[in-house]
Amino acid sequence: MPTKLPTRQLGTTDLNITRVGFGAWATGGGGWAYGWGPQDDDQSIAAITRALELGVNWIDTAAVYGLGHSEEVVGRLLKKLTGADRPYVFTKCGLVWDPKDPMKDARRVLTPASIRRECEASLRRLGVERIDLYQFHRPDEDTGTPAEESWRMMVQLQEEGKVRAIGVSNFDVSLLRKIEAIQHVDSLQPPFSLIRRGAAAAEIPWCRANRTGVIVYSPMQTGILTDSFSAERVKKMAPDDWRPGSVNFQTPNLERNIALRDALIPIARRHNTTVSSVAIAWTLAWPGVTGAIVGARSAEQVDGWIGAATLTLTAEDLDDIALATETTSAGSGPTRPASARVIPQATSASTEAR
To answer: How confident is the model over 1-17, as a mean pLDDT?
Structure first.
């Protein structure tokens, strides 16, 4: 789809993506183990539509989000879009749920047969003939299937034209090396934020050295690093919202994380932008990071972070943020990229997607 936002090439693929993409995790709604509570489908579509109108050219979803529901909602929107208006669509496999017990944790299954079944199901729910980026959601921990065997099935799906590019999420360097020996890993999707910084120590540098694209998830740490977040808000979250059970939403981490969020306010004012945009831009400042996946439950929330797509943090900003992470003791991992990032312009303003 045409976009006026800056784009970057995803690894060695022919995908040129905007610096931020729409994350459709919350689009899955509530009623499953890692849901965000009730979500209106029309509001989800309005949020995605707003992101596309502002120039975002990719959507990231997964089969497990809402146990298929997120993909169905994305598919509903895609039916209304044609040709050049269609964004890239990324999704994931490898988390197999029990339809009789939706609140039960999904099993981590990457057998070749299961991967193929999941791919076919995702194609149907999305209503597309080809998935632009197909990813393993997490390493297989329930069947003992070697990663190399799983990866060969991804290569086969690519050769069959069912998927355009292939990648992984939540893989460490040891697993990346194993599958890279079979065929190049087009992308990695690691968790990465000012609070959860571990990927900057190993996975992101490995990807940079091996020309593997990186699209980070939860750059706002599932809502903490946003302008409106508060401890009071946690108390009002829906009973089936998974976040209050997370360590980052509990004392003493919650207070430390809010203190770090507060330290971003002067930087946001310096750039006449939002705290959310600063938090996302920080992840994009790391060499090797291609883009960031950012969720929204309404069009208004999209307006709150779209500024990250064009925001470049200065060396002073990065120094101030590094100091804040140290003084607040929030999170863990490297605190500052080695140097302020020089942003490459991968394509012209008009970028074809599909």
So the answer is: 93
Catalytic residue among 65, 88, 134, 217: 65
Domains of the chain, start order: 17-221+275-312 (3.20.20.100)
- Bridge partner residues of 16 (DSSP): 9
Specify the higher pLDDT residue, 84 or 12: 12
**Tens digits of residue pLDDT in 48-90:** 999 999 999 999 999 999 999 999 999 999 999 988 889 999 9
How many Å apart are CA 133 and CA 68, to the nearest integer? 17
Q: Is 88 an annotated catalytic residue?
A: no
Q: What is the pTM of this model?
A: 0.91
Task: Round to whole Å and give the CA distance between 184 and 163.
Answer: 15
Residue 54 makes CB contacts below 8 A (sequence gap 6+) with 5, 302, 303, 306, 309
Distance CA 231, CA 251 (A): 10
Angle (CA) 45 47 48, round 5°: 65
